[in-house]
């Protein structure tokens, strides 16, 4: 493990605040995250026809499925990095809708930590949508940063897990954007 990664983890995880304790867990709830991106995707209708919007939506969903599967079923088993609550002591860990302080790592089975799928998925969706509608970046980028921050604050990921997820998400967003742009060009040509 990289020493700076653990140090940064403790800095973020130990920066406790009752407001953050109540808000940040929301940014790790998959249904909240999905609802946010579906809602934001409707803004594309301002700029694109319904036909083009549907094409973008299909690529967004396909990309999400590919990145989520790749993150959880390909990369995590390759890297096999344990989560903070299993590998280090003295952390705040969010479980069963409350924070607990762990003096010692938990002895329980868990999925692997690197990369963060929450971070890769939210990064993918944020970059993908903002490539099509750049002014949406003003709400999309802070959102994916909050999702990543929440994963560290809740004690389930190290900072490099989140950073790796963001990079992975950006790369896939760029690839799917380029492919989708070609399809949109074909739709425009008809």
From TrEMBL:
Domain of life: Bacteria
Keywords assigned: Membrane, Transmembrane, Transmembrane helix
Residues annotated as transmembrane: 23-46, 53-75, 124-146, 158-177
InterPro entries: PAP2/HPO, PAP2/HPO_sf
Lineage: Bacteria, Pseudomonadati, Thermodesulfobacteriota, Thermodesulfobacteria, Thermodesulfobacteriales
Listed Pfam families: PAP2
Domain Phosphatidic acid phosphatase type 2/haloperoxidase: 57-177
Provenance organism: Thermodesulfobacterium geofontis
SMART domains: acidPPc
Name of the molecule in the record: Phosphatidic acid phosphatase type 2/haloperoxidase domain-containing protein
